Amino acid sequence: MSATSLSAQRARLEYFRTLVADDAHFLLLEAAAAVAQDDDPAVDAMAVVAQVDELGARLSRRLPSDAAAQQRLRLLNHYFFKELSFGVNVNDFYAPGNSHLHQVLQTRRGIPITLALIYLEMARCVGLKVQGVSFPGHFLCKCSLPQGEVIIDPMTGRSLSRDELDERLLPYRQQRGLVDDFEVPLGLFLQAASPRDILARLLRNLKEIHRAGEDWLRMKQVMDRLVMVLPHDWSERRDRALVNAELEQWAQAAEELKSYLQECPQAEDAPALRERLQELQRMARLH
What is the pLDDT along the chain (287 residues), one digit of tens a residue? Predict the structure, then answer.
């Protein structure tokens, strides 16, 4: 990478850092849009936000000023899923572009979390309180109405019943042993996700896509952002160390893995990683 390209990359990361530094002023939609700059530096994250807000403003202008919350939700769902035709990309679900908001706006196809990000912002534009839910399996939304909370599938706009949610949750519960005496109430899985948690889930989706494709450079770019979003999650720093090793950046990999082992000396993977650290330190000396 040339010095100019490296400088531009650093500038993009610093811009991203300003968006996610403070929970009180966490610019979720802009930060999510900025993720795509790793693949396309020309992406204007602020323009993406403005585009979403304009779509929301168009619907807001249609609504009667005295429209009840339930009516606003019904009209939002019709506008988002029918008129604008947003929906899931069933033909290529794991394409990285499904995690890039500017592409989702262009194609009207994405994955649950990117559809939800656009839906949440448009809901705000029409005076609805809609929050993200980091549900196992796929991301959901919940809308607070005078009658109670409605859980919404951002792929379709359908309201999900308690039985449907329990059915979706069952494989996760079985896998984790959270059944019978160890069953966890459904409500714990329906807590509102913080903006930081939502962005982390988006980045982790991309992380796993690039890991599966062994695209270590793109995975490293995602990891750089993920570590900014979750600076105290040492498992993410460990994973970045291992990606650096794949990229033969031995010194960086060794330094970060050493930090992980100092912070998490009792981790299950610590014995194996101590051996790996010795190997990385040896490679760093050789190069």
Answer: 666 778 888 999 999 999 999 999 999 999 999 999 999 999 999 999 999 999 999 999 999 889 999 999 999 999 999 999 999 999 999 999 999 999 999 999 999 999 999 999 999 999 999 999 999 989 999 999 999 999 999 999 999 999 999 999 988 888 877 776 567 788 889 999 999 999 999 999 999 999 999 999 999 999 999 999 999 999 999 999 999 999 999 999 999 999 999 999 999 999 999 999 999 999 999 98
3-state SS of 155-193 is CCCCECCHHHHHHHHHHHHHHHCCCHHHCCCHHHHHCEC
**Domain-embedded: residue 207:** yes
Please indicate, yes or no, whether residues 175 and 258 belong to a single structural domain of this protein: no
- The reply to whether 165 and 47 lie within a common domain is yes
Q: Look at strands 130-133 and 109-110 and give their pairing.
A: unpaired
Find out whether 230 and 200 touch, Cβ atoms under 8 Å.
yes
CB 18, CB 46: distance < 8 Å = no
Q: Which helix (H) or strand (E) holds 237?
A: helix 234-246
Instruction: Identify residue 109 by its one-letter amino acid code.
Output: R
Inter-residue contact 12 to 34 (CB < 8 Å):
yes
Same domain, 205 and 248: no
The helix-helix angle for 216-229 and 234-246 (nearest 10°) equals 160
Q: Residue 60 belongs to what domain range?
A: 3-213
Share of the chain above pLDDT 90, in %: 87
CA-nearest of 189, 179, 180, 184 to 132 is: 189
Q: Sign of dihedral through CA atoms 2, 35, 26, 60?
A: positive
Cβ–Cβ < 8 Å for 237, 272: no
Residue 59 CB coordination number (10 Å):
20
